[in-house]
Write a structure and sequence with these properties.
Elements: H1 15-32, E1 38-49, H2 56-66, E2 68-75, E3 81-95, H3 100-105, E4 115-118, E5 124-127, E6 133-139, E7 144-150, E8 153-154, E9 160-162, H4 167-180, H5 189-196, H6 204-224
Parallel strand pairs: 1-3
Antiparallel strand pairs: 2-3, 4-5, 6-7, 7-8, 7-9
């Protein structure tokens, strides 16, 4: 099953978020150095908190949990032990969903992206989104973020977070599926995703059809709440 936080937990203080992130960074380092038993790595991080809970104080507290030195040890069944020393040199915390505006306004080298658009007169012109108002959505497992930014400048008072995401809807779909398919049950959201996203899977088409109504209902709820 997927690893998720408890309902109503505080992401800025929950140990699970930190532990999973550090484990992921350590695994990334081990893949790059598969034969080393002691690995030293440095990272710059960008992390995020839900719109409904982020404040300057919680953002700073979240950053401080990641900064500086961490040690992760992997104990292999063979008895081999790998020690990964992680040094976080820089960390920035953004509202969930806000990071997407950077990819709209700037390219990977930090240059402003110019986009061609057709005007009402039928002419083509170039514009950028440096000074445009942008609405971004981040639909997660347990929350949905509606983020307003002016360019890449986050507008907190105009943004909001909804206390639900896709998890409960997917669990409802799985429950109904399992009632109707007792010989081919789906046992986790991870398995649901594997089937739903793989067009070659033998149950893909049936699962998409079975999910359609519930997912459209969720989309309508997000759009109208």
């Amino acid at each position: 099953k997927g690893i998720e936080m408890e309902k109503k937990s505080d992401k800025s203080k929950d140990d699970l978020v930190l532990l999973v992130t550090l484990a992921g960074l350590a695994i990334s380092a081990m893949k790059k150095h598969p034969n080393k038993n002691k690995i030293d790595v440095t990272y710059d991080l960008s992390v995020a908190l839900p719109v409904a809970t982020i404040t300057p104080q919680t953002a700073q507290e979240f950053i401080e949990r990641y900064m500086n030195h961490h040690t992760v040890k992997f104990h292999h069944p063979s008895g081999r032990e790998v020690v990964v020393n992680i040094q976080v040199e820089f960390c920035k915390c953004l509202p969930e969903g806000a990071a997407g505006s950077w990819g709209i306004v700037y390219d990977e080298k930090g240059k402003t992206i110019k986009r061609k658009v057709e005007t009402t007169e039928g002419k083509t012109t170039e514009i950028d989104f440096v000074d445009k108002t942008i609405l971004s959505f981040d639909i997660g497992a347990g929350t949905t973020e509606e983020v307003v930014s002016h360019g890449v400048s986050f507008k907190h008072k105009m943004s909001r977070g909804l206390p639900y995401g896709v998890k409960e809807t997917l669990l409802d779909i799985i429950k109904v599926w399992n009632l109707n398919n007792k010989q081919k049950t789906i046992d986790s959201i991870a398995e649901f995703n594997a089937i739903y996203l793989d067009s070659e899977h033998p149950r893909h088409i049936r699962l998409k059809e079975a999910s359609r109504g519930a997912l459209l209902g969720l989309a309508n709820r997000i759009a109208t709440d």
